[in-house]
Design goal:
Number of domains of chain A: 2
Structural class of chain A: alpha/beta
Largest sheet of chain A: 6 strands, parallel
Oligomer: homodimer
CATH superfamily of the largest domain in chain A: HAD superfamily/HAD-like
CATH topology of the largest domain in chain A: Rossmann fold
Order of helices and strands of chain A: HEHHHHHEHEHHEHEHEH
Number of strands of chain A: 6
Strand order of the largest sheet of chain A: 3-2-1-4-5-6
Strand content of chain A: 5-15%
Largest interface: A-B, 24 and 24 residues
Helix content of chain A: 40-55%
Radius of gyration of chain A: 21 Å
Low-confidence stretches of chain A: none
């Protein structure tokens, strides 16, 4: 047994941390960036099909709509076309044209989402090392189960993750701490044996803290990243750790183990 | 001007038929076949992911579900997995496994639908000839506008069709004859100046007959094809013509013109 294996062996026996939980979107893959790129592909598909609107103006419009209706609405392009038709006096689209443009945009959007989804570079190496340490893994995420599982399968995460907890599956939504408690119970662990990593203070850090789980805020440049929003993290919801690369979680485990 | 061009020239001037209407699914492309192939791809995706069920049994189950819930339900695989889990005593899937299989099936289903959609071989040549004759074209179809337009764009039909009428767009559904009347009015025509081609007696032939439109039943081997169902066409709803290839519509126009 060489030194490396010896060390892994010791960690396996002594690690206080038995489980690492991850948020999915903007933690394991660039969800915000992917959606933004896909939305632009949708705009470009409409322009290529002959829609008469200035590209920059169209981009501003779709951003506004995403802000107003939320990023999970399935009707962004419907609202886009409706706005264009009602608010812009020089544009008058028939019903047919409206549906044609919306269909083209939705097709291009989904094509991009399927084609370009990929893990952050640091995810796979880190998950392999975590497996080597004999530490279990879970994804705890909000969202429509079938959509979230589609992402997990497309990202090839299935083989690395021991348990997936999707809030709509058990009828409890983040930041309800019972979602995290459910996950702990599944493995028969207490909070101090788990680390949870996410990109949102409200939905990831707070429920972890409430379950006495080691909380890690990851800065990925997504829409809730405090480095980007400029929001200060209130003292009472401060995560135990802040990181910018997932690989740093290995050091955190070492630190906790040596406490 | 050669003989062919001369003939086209005369037709342009004298054609009684000014408009040809088409149904979309199972008239211009093999909708039934495509859905069946896609459904099998979904089944195979679940089996490849490790679902323990005999393939032939799975195929029979999904067929049963499609029959019971209709071919347009978006929940076929949900029902499939639920049935498997509740009815088969040897199978017990966790929530996670259920969603994983459903997601995998839906992904494979859509991939096949996008990849394999194509016009019947006789459609493009016939549409080109119709355009040469200076006859207008319309698609009149039931269905969700954005889904139907997606098919039209993927099939490359957009450049050949002058008007698309999708029932949910104007709030009138087949077999309501007003859908066909709406189309006639759009072109300022009466029924005897139009031919309509579809694969269903109830939804295509009857409303055409009620509008005094020349009705053509096309046998494409889809789920409503009377050659396949064995159903007899009642005398009072007999279409004016029955064809097996779309190109035959050109002969029909010649026949009507020479009446």
């Amino acid at each position: 047994m060489n030194v490396f294996n010896l060390r892994v062996g010791i960690l396996k026996l002594t690690s206080k941390i038995k489980l690492i939980g991850f948020d999915l979107d903007d933690c394991l893959f660039d969800s915000t960036g992917l959606s933004e790129r896909a939305r632009l592909k949708g705009i470009d598909a409409m322009l290529n099909l002959g829609l008469k609107v200035e590209r920059n103006k169209a981009i501003e419009m779709i951003k506004e709509i995403v802000k107003e209706y939320g990023s999970n609405s399935s009707k962004h392009y419907n609202f886009f076309i409706k706005r264009l038709n009602q608010l812009e006096s020089e544009i008058e689209l028939s019903f047919n044209e409206q549906y044609k443009y919306i269909a083209a945009a939705v097709m291009a959007y989904h094509e991009e989402k399927i084609k370009s989804i990929q893990l952050f570079d640091d995810v796979e190496p880190t998950l392999i090392k975590i497996k080597d340490l004999n530490i279990k893994t879970a994804i705890i995420t909000d969202g429509i189960p079938i959509k979230q599982y589609e992402k997990i399968l497309r990202l090839g995460l299935d083989k690395y993750i021991d348990l997936v907890v999707i809030s709509d599956e058990i009828g409890v939504k983040k930041p309800n701490p019972r979602l995290f408690d459910y996950c702990l119970k599944k493995f028969g662990l207490n909070g101090q044996e788990m680390v949870y990593i996410g990109d949102r203070i409200d939905k990831d850090i707070i429920p972890a803290l409430l379950n006495n789980i080691y909380s890690v805020f990851i800065h990925r440049g997504g829409k809730y990243d405090t480095y980007k929003t400029g929001n200060k993290i209130p003292k009472e919801t401060k995560p135990d750790y802040e990181i910018t690369s997932l690989s740093e979680v290995l050091e955190i485990i070492e630190e906790i183990n040596s406490e």
